[in-house]
Structure formats: structure tokens, C-alpha cells
Amino acid sequence: MSIRHGLLALLDQGPRYGYQLRTEFEARTGATWPLNVGQVYTTLSRLERDGLVEAAGEDDEGHQFYAVTDAGRAELRTWFDTPVPRTSPPRDELAIKLAMAVTVPGVDVSAVVQGQRRHSIKALQDYTRLKGRALAGETGPGTVPSEGNDLAWLLVLDQLIFQTEAEIRWLDHCETRLAQQAELQQARAAEAARDGAARKPGRLGRRTRA
Amino acid sequence: MSHTDQSRQAPVLHLEDVTRVHGQGAAEVQALRGVDLKVHPGEFVAVMGPSGSGKSTLLTLAGGLDTPTTGQVLVEGVALGTLSRKKLAQVRRRSIGYVFQDYNLIPALTAAENISLPRELDGLSARAARREALAALEELGIPELADRFPDDMSGGQQQRVAIARALIGERRLVLADEPTGALDSTTGEAVLAVLRARCDAGAAAMMVTHEARHAAWADRVVFLRDGRMVDESVSQDAASLLVSAAANSRKVDE
After folding, report:
1. What is the C-alpha to C-alpha distance for residues A174 and A113, in angstroms, rounded to an integer?
2. Could you tell me which residue ranges the Transcription regulator PadR N-terminal domain spans (chain A) (predicted)?
3. Which residues from B are below 8 Å from A172, CB to CB?
4. Tens digits of per-residue pLDDT, A154-177?
5. Which of 3.10.129.10, 3.30.1360.120, 3.40.109.10, 3.40.50.300 is the CATH number of B1-95+173-179+190-246?
6. To the nearest whole angstrom, how far is the Cα of A199 from the nearest Cα of chain B?
7. Which residues on B lie below 8 Å from A176 (Cβ)?
């Protein structure tokens, strides 16, 4: 629902036309989630259908303006007042991949983990570079420079950074758990071998006692 | 500066196929098993790995605080192993700056005195050393701390003073061990941004950390496992970042 509410939030600040909405959405999120104009118009027509926005005339250049309705404003308040649901987590390809990797014979799980870690660290380096620039006052991509946009962009970057970091920490944790599991299995195998030897004292057992 | 530009310059730090064995016989531990690593001017390298992977050993070898069992450590082209004790102490003081997790500032000295102490040991006059210290504090954006004692500073302020001390004089190599350890996330970020800026201005830095978010400030992140470098991640040119950041990320669903 993020585009829908994102557009409502922008329109809450005054009537705007499609292309303008796209530019402003990207200014705040640093083109992290690129929008095409088609998506903007589709969303606008659905919002209009649902009575959340209404057409607000054209300018001299023929741009169709939209304005938020009272119902749209109420919808926006509800959005801000309601936490983003965490109850049905989105499918995570990496979690599915690792869950499969540990059960499919012949997959080098630690290679999967390290390959992902390298990739994720790389992404983290890239985001951090962007943040370094944003902190130094250089604006994000295609932004209309303004303090509010810079702050919004920084927050989005921070979110990407913390999320990627969480993934890497989880990978570290997976690796530790895999190592523990391997140790446990080795210990069990050794124990089984000892038990086996104990049942046949004719071989190792007697010679060492002698 | 791109990675290829850096490669053309002589490295500030070169760990040449170093191994380090602690203990003997049954108690023998191979802390490092043949690590080759170069850090060039302007380059910020982060070393990551689980505890026991050899990260700290790598840092103490690079700083001349310990010697490798085999292989050698070169700082600005000088093999540390060939130096007399006195010369080694000089290289350590003049070429290498250290930033530790617990800052290691001397409580009885002010910020400016802490920073100028190594320069005075180098034989600089107290006045000239103070001038350099004030300039370093200015550069780190904390000139007002000059005459304050460590106990009267926040953790973030102490750490910035420690970085100023690490960078004063001709030092071109900064070695950092979890430099943001006890700091909150935005203060830690400010400290890393300072290190980053110093590298962009030509210094070379190697930082040991287990925090991916901190390592990500580096140009290059190397992964250690059981005393070996197993992998690395090199940051690309800044110009292509925006494109890839956008391309790498998911699209929002309506």
C-alpha cells in the first residue's frame, strides 16, 4: 500500500499532477524504490475511484492536477496512526534458500552463506557511501534540494543499512549454528564409534590393557 | 580515488605472507596462516571475522606491537623486523596512529596535551606541538575541547580526541580496533565519517570490527577465518552507486 499512501501524503500538502508526484516521491526516498509514471497514474485513478482524491483542474500546459478529499485525509491519518503489520512476514528468498540448502544433500551451505555475506556487505558499503554523501550535505538523486527531502532520504538509507546489517548478523549466526551442529554430529559419531569398539574388546581394548 | 589509482601507489602498509604462531607443542595456536594484505594511500580497509579468526593479531602485527613468526610487515616500505628497538619505536610513533576501543587518553592531561604528547616525544617544541594539536582538534570540529580533561568529555568527544591524536604529524597509517565500541549509533557514525574523510584526504586506515555497519564505511572489507583471508568485498566507484542502489533494491508493490 506504500505508493497509495505515499501519494496521499504528498497531495495532503496541496494539489499536484502525476509527474510532479513521481519526482517528489523519489526525492524523499532517493530513487530507492523507482516509480514509473504509469504506476502513478494507475494509483491516482484508483484513489479517485475510491473517493480519496479528486481532479482539481488543469494548468496551461495541460497537466491534470489532483487534490486530496476529506476521506483521503482521514485515510492518511489512519495510515500514520496504524503500525505497519508484522504478523504475516513477507516471503524472504534468502531464508527460503538457506532452509532448502541445509536439507538438500551436496549443497555447500557455508559457501552459500559467505557468498551472500560478501554480496550484502557490498550493498552495505554502497549504502554507506551514499549516506556519507548525504551527511556531507550532497543531495540524493534527482532531488529538489530541501532540508526535509534530505532528512527523508537519510532515514530511508538508514533503514536499508540496518536491514542489511540485520541480514549479515543473521548470516553470522547461521554460520555459528552450523558449526555447532557439525561439532555435535562429530561428537555423536565419535561416541558411536567408541561404543562399537567397546562391544568388541577383542581388538583395541585388550591390547591397550596388556 | 578509485581502487586502480591506489594500486599504482606504493602501499602504506604491506603485510607480506605473514603467519603468527602462539605457544608451542600441544598448546600451539596458529593465529595467522599466511595473510597478504596491502593498504594504499587513501584506502580504508576493514577486517571482519569471528572471534579467534586472527583480526586482533593482524592489527598488532601491523602496528609493530608484535612480530610475525614468518613473513614481514612493511610500513611505508620499511620492514619493521629489520629495525632496532629504538627505530621501531620511532616508526610506531611517527608513522602509525592507533585508535582503541577504550580511547586510552591520559586522564591527567587535557585534550590538547594528549594529542601533542607524541609530537613532543618526537622532539618538537611544546609550543609547536600544541599548535599542531589545536589544528587537529579544529579539523575534527572540536576546537572547544582543547583544554578539557578526558573525564569532562563524552565518549564520542574522547574518541574524536583519540582520532586527532592518531592523525597528528606525518602519520599516514591509522590502525583502529573497534573504534566505535561504546558509542551510540549516531556518535559512532560521526567518528567513522571522520576516519573516512581522513582516508579521502590521503591517509591509509585499517580497522578491525565485527560490526558490518561499521565495516561498510571502508573501501575494502576483508574476511578472516581461522587465520586466513577467505574473501573480500571492494566498494565500487562512487559514481555508479546511485544506479546500483536503485537497481539492487526491490520495487514497491502497490
Report:
1. 8
2. 7-77
3. 50
4. 899 999 999 999 999 999 999 889
5. 3.40.50.300
6. 31
7. 50
